[in-house]
Amino acid sequence: MRRIGPNLAAVAIAFLLAVPLHGQSAGVAEKRLKPLPPLTDLAATPFDASGLQTGRTSAPDDQDAEFCCDRTHLGLTLIEIGTVMVIPWYFNRHVSDDSTAVLSLDSWERNIREGFEWDHDNFKTNMFAHPYHGGLYFNAGRSNGYNFWQSAAWAWGGSFMWEMFGENNPGAINDWIATAVGGIAIGEMLHRASLTVWDNNATGTERALREIGGFFLNPIGGASRLFRGEMAKVGDNPEDRYPSKIQTHLNVGVRHVGSGGRASTSTGGTAQFWMQYGDLYEDLDHPFDAFRVNASINGRNEENGLGLLQIRGGLWGTQLSRSDRVQHTFRIEQLFNYLNNRTIETGGSAVAASFNSRWFLSDDWSLTTRVAPMALLIWGVDSEYSDFTKRDYDFGTGGGLTLGTGFQHRGRSIVQADIATLAQRTLSGAAGTHIQSFLITRATVPVFGAFGIGGEYWLFIRDSNYRDFPDVYRRHPEFSGFVTWDLR
Known about the structure:
single chain, alpha+beta, 12-stranded antiparallel β-barrel, 12 strands
């Protein structure tokens, strides 16, 4: 099921533009006052929304413009979803001359009658391009007044319509699920990030740059602002424009990949963007009030530009216990993972039951832990037997467990270690079971101001037991050293 994938350079620019464009910078300190503060102050963060607004929280008296979204805009939502479908269909039909784009009433009737099948598109198309496309469906609703769950329904509906009516071959069940579920995570992440860029108070060059930056991040949200005439209006900013805190880091350096069966030893450049939006221990009221994003751009030694995209957002949470010294929370989380480089081709969507704890060791130091059993909703892992299965990776479902711990100094991560084990049974591909294990350790040392140096070590182990083919065992280490810049 082919669609137009996003330009990787634009995606990289979009992540960099997620940093709020504002002249006032906040520090990274996250420490308690003396004596110990009330519990409500434990979320003191490196980012203060009121500070960034700098007194411009509302429009001037003579420019009280009206902005979205006190009400929903059904008509515009339908137009945007229709456009998101028509553009890739037109490209496939008239540019690529793809026979699957020749549509008719007969093809639609046949698709509805025959139902879903599993398709054989490549990993990048199914596990990244389709979820990104689902994010467009999601944001057609989200940018027009619909809440998170209502917009999720638009993602499911838009994906279903494409599978049934966008091509003349039967719809793909894996595409429907991957597009909708992954699109929800990508869509909400980009929606929230774009809100921090757009500023309805800004004018002139700053306003133009903000509108362009927000459009890169969230094209459908930008189109909605254009169609509603909001790009040039001056007025109120939404109350949820900024999270309670935000931290972003840009790491640039060198990545060394060890051999291990799939790829030979290689060394090349790497760039990594990391963002923590909201407070994982305090912001529990609404979906994605707190989420974490990690993205990596591969160097020229890699075939794929985008090597990593991970999103972990809270869907629901509650405080289990709290005191002056420690907080324990529980969150239901949505996970999106896309890993595609020389050593690893795996990822998909999952949900996790995450138990999180934060200990305040002193005024400057804190310790965090995370225990998260998870269910893999739809997951893929590369296969050595594509000549027989006609698929270069195996689709399946399963479960897993993640354990994590880390030390922070004044809110800045100094040491972090995570271990994850995933068990996946193949539903489409080479019949069998995949066990994947990840060990990830990271350390950074501040040098001066917002700059520091750091290193990261990955160890990936895959043990695949097949019913009809020889078993496969792979072990891949990799190391990266980098200069880190705390953008916010």
